[in-house]
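# nightly structure sweep
# worker-07 picked up a monomer target from the shared queue
# config: single-sequence mode, recycle default, output format = structure tokens
# input follows
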Amino acid sequence: MADSRETFVNQAFVVGYPIKHSRSPLIHRHWLKSFGIEGSYERVAVSPEDFEAFIAALKTGASGFCGGNVTIPHKEAACRLADAPDALAEELGAANTLWMEEGRLNATNTDGIGFTASLDAGHPGWENVDRAVILGAGGASRAVVQAVRDRGIGEINIVNRSMERAVELADRFGPAIHAHPMAALGEVCEGAGLFINTTSLGMDGEAVDEMPFERLLSSAVVTDIVYVPLMTPILKQAEAKGLATVDGLGMLLHQAVPGFEKWFGRRPVVDEELRNLVIADMEAHA
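# output follows
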């Protein structure tokens, strides 16, 4: 007997404003094709003033969608409007994955899961360190801080131009998190085994000031959530110092896995075929 999950046509979305540059459809359509699932995944541009109505139509079934991804600027509103945000989304105050289940709109945030899964694939054992440094305290850093904390790293130092934002993250995520100004970057790098850039520094290849990577452990891992270009200036600096690096593309790919499984009933894998597909798209639009 055929698996009904493969014959029933589910429709999913990625919603944001703007949304035309999202690579999520490329990822999910690849998986739909790989599994032979008769489903769909599409971009939906929704302005902030129309987002509540979009969610209402999702809840009633009028939209025809079973769930989807949420990106900027709607993640906070998605968490607030969901009927059942999980513990990850509630602590972050933001959701990026929605699905209907038993008449209720459920929400989670898979950014942190995607980040740690990417590191697990790129450098197994990365979490076996005492101290981590996270550069940046913007919206993108929240899920990273949460995920690194939840993997058991005992001391996490957030360095940011605005101390106020770094302190807010330290207050939100508990006693393992410490806030520092940019002037302290060299000091907190001393003896750290993990360095994470969550800022837009180096995006599109722009020059970046020299990082004090010589003060990290020689076994340290340096990673960057920026993935255009794949080898960012920060990763190039780390590589020049002989440090292990993990690029940011894996986070994009791995964060998509839980949502696909919720909407289409099959758990996909992140493999070289998918990675190469997305890299080709990046190069085509460079």
